[in-house]
Amino acid sequence: MAQPFVLLPTEDSHQTLQIQPPSTGLGLRGRIRVPGDKSISHRALMLGAIASGETTIEGLLLGEDPLSTAACFRAMGAEISELNSERVRVKGIGLQNLQEPIDVLNAGNSGTTIRLMMGLLAGQRDRFFCVTGDESLRSRPMARVIQPLSQMGAEIRGRQGNTRAPLAISGRSLQPIRYVSPIASAQVKSSILLAGLTCEGQTTVVEPALSRDHSERMFQAFGAKLTVNPEEISVTVEGPAELTGQAVVVPGDISSAAFWLVAGAIVPDSDLLIENVGVNPTRTGILEALQQMEAQITLENERIVAGEPVADLRVRSSNLQAIEIGGSLIPRLIDEVPILAVAAAFAKGTTIIRDAEELRVKESDRIAVMASELGRMGATISERPDGLEITGGAALQGATVDSYTDHRIAMSLAIAALQAKGQTQIQRAEAAAVSYPDFVPTLQQLLG
């Protein structure tokens, strides 16, 4: 049988993923592990760099985004061993001891890297930093972080009226604030709290809905004084902080597991076990949404690892039903909306996803791109100002589609292609490596 998954180089140095599923017997079966959680990997590297003593990290994600974080902090004086998934050692240099780099810091494609670093760098007194990223990152909004940091006294300048990278940051003494955020964003919250670590007093962030809380958990593990008020949906950190290096174990990323959860649900005769997945309650919106769609998903071997809840996830083929989602659930599955749209294309009825306008300023406009590219494959899908409307049941056809250099788009389209008739070619598919370097080999493993 011909190889169903082939990566083809192109003349412009990109790669095209060609998918030709077999006509019969595709059922996905087996046990797999997904890469380490990207959010936790970033934070472990950052807090390790500004703590006193050594931090060890097991299970670190080896995607391009954490590589960018490590490179930035090495350039500012932190000693970080070669990145691997076994054990990474970070020799911290202390909260206020980041060195002024001799060159521009490059965050690559990573919004987490640049936005969280801004909070830390703003409070590094009498030092200057310039931060940039790739073409995609330079087009993404930074004002949502710059504005609250400016209220703390930060001096940050950027393109387009201080809204786009590259950014010039002059470190200053900051003042604590109480910030009522208009959006539920872990990046915004974390950046302000990191700035709060450097200044005298209590810094509070209030959110309209609960965003992922990896920063809060890790702050406490590293010794920061932190208070969470669930009734107000707020978190307060007291500075200046003294952080101590820790042993961090990174669980599998539920955002990466989401692709296999949907694949297992939509491909007939599938039975997958995804081991060692982080099931932090602020991240399990995708599980709730798929279970509302009547996906057969169960949690097994539930446990706590280094302060984070972990479980093995089993998914079996399912007859999915359409749902409507929005409100407070969206921040808990915002990164999984593209693959949820794929699930909706195979569900009975019309699925409506609302309150997800944040997707328009991710690595791509994920609302527009998913509507366009799934539409090319024959899905009945349309844009809403704040989300998507998908009527399931249309037979998908293989087509030439584009990832728009967005890792989650590339992988979502690949999962859709498993149930499309004929060959699908996904252009610029190398984007998957941002968060899941072994995505294609895992596809091949499951089919074999």
UniProtKB/TrEMBL annotation:
GO molecular function, one term: 3-phosphoshikimate 1-carboxyvinyltransferase activity
Domain Enolpyruvate transferase: 28-443
Chief place where the protein resides: cytoplasm
Keywords: Amino-acid biosynthesis, Aromatic amino acid biosynthesis, Cytoplasm, Transferase
Active site: D335 (proton acceptor)
GO cellular component, one term: cytoplasm
Keyword Cytoplasm: yes
The keyword Amino-acid biosynthesis appears for this protein: yes
Catalytic activity, reaction form: 3-phosphoshikimate + phosphoenolpyruvate = 5-O-(1-carboxyvinyl)-3-phosphoshikimate + phosphate
Subcellular location(s) of the protein: Cytoplasm
Known EC number: 2.5.1.19
Broadest EC class assigned to this enzyme: transferase
One GO term of the biological process aspect: aromatic amino acid family biosynthetic process
Pathway as given in its UniProt record: Metabolic intermediate biosynthesis; chorismate biosynthesis; chorismate from D-erythrose 4-phosphate and phosphoenolpyruvate: step 6/7
Annotated family: Belongs to the EPSP synthase family.
Descriptive protein name: 3-phosphoshikimate 1-carboxyvinyltransferase
Species of origin: Synechococcus elongatus PCC 11801
Designated gene of the protein: aroA
